[in-house]
Amino acid sequence: MAILWGRYVEFHIFPYSYAEYLQLMQQPAGRASYLAYLQKGGLPELYNLPTVESEKQYVASVKDTILLRDIVKRKPVRDVRLLDDIFIYLVNNASNLFSVQHIVNFFKSKNRKVSYDTLSNYLGYIEEAFLAYKTERYNIKGKDVVAGNCKYYLNDLSFKNFLYPGFAYGVGYLLENAVYLELRRLGYIVYTGSFRDKEVDFVAMKDDRVIYLQATYMLETAQTMEREYAPLLTIGDNYEKYVVSMDEVQFPSNEGVRHIQAWNLKEIL
């Protein structure tokens, strides 16, 4: 943040990008280094710590500092445990579509009474602290934002990798989160797209440019190819369309839909 003649300009600083990771680690771009980046995360201090245990302690301290100091001290939080549990829910459901009511129902199933308004407020506090980002749904045909279900993405993958590794969370979800962060880092406004009955992971907008992207771990089977390409092939406009994966083989374009390997994503943005 910089002060300019009584005003201020806010700069949103993201954790290390993949490109910064490569420079720091002096590694070549490729599947191995990208996977290592996904499994580590981008918090700079992590790369100065000697052991996995010290890394876990550091990530936990970052989370607790933001929740307890930045949020609890500044916002009217009456239930600190609930705030923490909401963040855990976001970590383990990042890149999934859900609504505030879904979370209310989740806590209800655990015999915990949580009001819609309280939960909505706490989610807003977490967003304001930049621990997670809410991504609205965008109706591609109608060109408007749709109320209801949305997605959340984490500010850094280390929260998942170091704090809650026991929950099932595939590499594909980490990849999707990393693609989201790269789009935001480069100045795109990002939505989750919907077109008819199909979902598009990202509708990214910057100036006059619109890009549709699907993110998937591997395009191993014909079924996976169909699932990832079909939503993009259904869209009839001429905006750029990409499927991002971690396949070591570069697939040819399919009716204008291009395949891009995750470690080369920045080249097309």
UniProtKB/TrEMBL annotation:
Q: Where is the DUF4143 domain?
A: 69-214
MF term (GO), any: ATP binding
Q: Does the keyword Nucleotide-binding apply?
A: yes
| Annotated Pfam families | DUF4143
Say yes or no: keyword Transmembrane helix present. Answer: no
Keyword annotations from UniProtKB, A to Z = ATP-binding, Nucleotide-binding
What is the superkingdom listed in this entry's lineage? Bacteria
Task: Give the protein's recorded name.
Answer: ATP-binding protein
Q: Known InterPro entries for this protein?
A: DUF4143
